[in-house]
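Our preliminary data section would be incomplete without showing what the modeling component actually yields. Below, a chain of 249 amino acids is followed by its predicted structure, encoded as tokens that our downstream tools consume directly.
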Amino acid sequence: MSDLSKIFIELEEVMQFLKKEMRLKEVYEKILLNKIISQAAEARGITITPEEIEAEAEKQRRERHLERAADTLEWLAEQLVTPSDWEMGICDRLLSHKLAQVLFADEVEHFFTQNRAEFEQVILYQIIIDSETLAQELYYQIEDGEISFYHAAQMYDIDIHRRRKCGYEGIVYRFALQSDIATVVFRASPQQVTVPYKTEQGYHLFFVTEFIPAELTPERYQEIINKMFQHWLSTELHCMLNSDLLSDS
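Predicted structure:
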């Protein structure tokens, strides 16, 4: 395998590549977001200790099965980064996580309580058909036990990927569904097919195997705090970009 670290590339080449690939704005905004996080953390006295960086580095080494220091150095060289670069990246991610906790940890429980219904989940199967007549026929056949929902999905769904999964959509949050479809799904009786429901996609038959009540688990807590933090970052970035535009005009 060739050693990419020995191939010299000018900074201008990197810039031109990002422009040609239409990715310069994406990188530029990520750098600005990093500055926003750094400034906000500094203003709040948030810091990362060497011990925290080492603990996270050790975690990453375990995840990548890098048992020896030489293995770690080889992996970093393949990524074209130095150990110092790696540690700075770890520091940035830890700082982002700490800032999110400081900003929003006290708001998560209230947000969850106010929006509890949106965090209800359902184990959902679905068939979408482009024929109203066929949808009605399948509905009655499934109701009468002439064909199983799963077999019908495998045979007739318009989407090949859903056919292969026998209509399985997974464990789905209420907030992940269109509001009208969420209403149909969460009013359904478990283990019973719903009557055909028409959208611009076609005629839907839904089958719910289980409703999962909303619960503020550690995973859901992290989902909410991440969502709040990303919204805050987007707002701060928007304000920063608008401020720059105003100062240039």
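The longest strand covers residues 202-212. The mean pLDDT is 93. Preliminary results of this kind motivate Aim 1 of the renewal.
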